[in-house]
Amino acid sequence: MSDQAxxxxxxMRERGASPDESRTVGDKTASDPEPIPxxxxxxxxxxxxxxxxxGKGGVGTSNLALxxxxxxxxxxxxxxxxxxxxxAANLDLLCGIRPKRDLGDVLAGECDLADxxxxxPGGIRVVPGSHGIKTFVDMLGDGPERLxxxxxxxxxxxxxxxxxxxxxxDAVWSRGGIAADELIVVTxxxxxxxxxxxxxxxxxxGLAGPKRIRVLVNQANSAAEADDVVARLxxxxxxxxxxxxxxxxxxxxxxxxRAAVRDRLPFIVTTxxxxxxxxxxxTARRLVEERAPTRGERPGLIASLATRWxxxxxxx
Length: 316
Fold this sequence. Notes:
Elements: H1 3-15, E1 22-25, E2 28-31, E3 48-54, H2 61-74, E4 79-83, H3 91-94, H4 103-107, E5 118-119, E6 125-127, H5 143-155, E7 160-167, H6 169-174, E8 182-187, H7 191-203, E9 212-220, H8 223-241, E10 246-252, H9 255-263, H10 267-270, H11 275-289, H12 301-315
Parallel strand pairs: 3-7, 3-8, 4-6, 4-7, 8-9, 9-10
Antiparallel strand pairs: 1-2, 5-6
Helix pairs in contact: 2-11, 5-12, 7-8
């Protein structure tokens, strides 16, 4: 490893932070940014963990996870966003960064986690996902074990940890949904999207799942339409599954979102006063104002994932 990488890892150990080797926004590259300061005063030593997933692709799961994270960063919160949608990772594209390394390199033993972490808008830290790896069990060697240790250290430096698990029911249990403090299911008002969201929720029935399951409605024409979607999901989950689903909020349909994706920047940055940006900030404030989950003896997200990954590898 280079002397620079060694220095990054040393800073990570000494300060509990994860400095970034470089960051790229659009076509401009900034080298060696200062380590992100630690402001957290948590007592339990680990971040509040939220796994974002959608029942089907195209509902905006990654985009909402990123923009809510940026909104939290604007509020002065320490946020880490991990792209766990292996094979279809896109958080780096959405926030205009071009990482030199990603999680696939860590798993392959080619670098340490500190070499992959990049600074995103709003001061958030982004762990880029791999664009060609299907599951952790495809990897050999001690890469997953070393990654888990590094992620546990990173988790202890943040207040919020977001996992973008991608879409589909398999994404939930294979990438941390049942280990998180909260699972956020993103859906649109489209009937097929609502039906797929119901499938994701149904898959958690009978499992030792997250402490709380939330619904976040994207691309809503109005608050009333979003409320109707949540009401239908909540009623069906309670009646047929015996499960309680809580609303998180909604984000209105907004042309500026699509434009921001083309520009490879979060829409909360490109159009901070747009309806979608205002809705995202409202959701972020709601998360901040909510009482942190009481974990008790429940392990942190990374410790829980370590157990699942180990079991998956044994089964191969």
